[in-house]
Amino acid sequence: MIMSESMPPTEHKNMYFVIKCGGSILNQLPDAFYHDLVAIKKQGYHPVLVHGGGPEISGLLDKLSIHTSFVDGLRVTTDEMVDTVEMVLSGKVNKQLVRKIFRAGAKAIGISGVDGKMFTCKPLNKALGRVGEVTSVDRTIIDQLSFAGYIPVISPISMDEDGGSLNINGDEAASAVAQALHADICLVSNTPGVYEEIDGQKNIYSTLDELKITSLIEEGTISGGMIPKVKGALAALSDEVSSVIILDGREKNALLKAVNHEQIGTRIVRKELRECH
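Predicted structure:
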């Protein structure tokens, strides 16, 4: 096991908090976001950052004149492009995040689902090419890094049974990690949560469950790109994951408020939990 100069305080030493940052928000996050991440670690929690990198991937593929397409929001990943996807996610984007966390005052280590065979995956659909789905997560490397004082930064790249690279949807990867760690998930975006706009004012729903989400979709309050986000959040809920929070990562102290259960964004919970609040 990797040893650390200082172990986390005991009060939260077994509490993980999974943070998923999509590629579209990464370049908009202020330095304060990473300082919050470091503050969470100093409080004794174990933050685990899972990231995407869609815009960066698309940009490089365009430069290489490699055509890209999507099916149900998933990038069709051919043999020709899978190495490029891995290079961007596990290389450029992953190490940029490690550096930003270092500058904020903590130590981070970038890994992917390939490392230590953290993710066991299988191909999702032949039509999607080298796209996979996570069937299990070995949390050993996350535990070792976290208890040694590091913040794991996870790229959603994995491999099949033959060792070939697989591209994993970032939201699914975050969900699988959270279930393995029995942790809540924070989906960091550029929206303050699920809201209804009335007379130019955004009225944010503080808590939602499946029944209310279904109703809001039917009436059109939840629309566009928010639909797959809330459906993904619902799919992540389980006995291991009690809530998923959607918030704007640019808001002051957003992560600290989320981990401390203060009001921020929209917390999506199972129906029986919502009834208790």
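Summary: The chain is about 40% helix and 25% strand.
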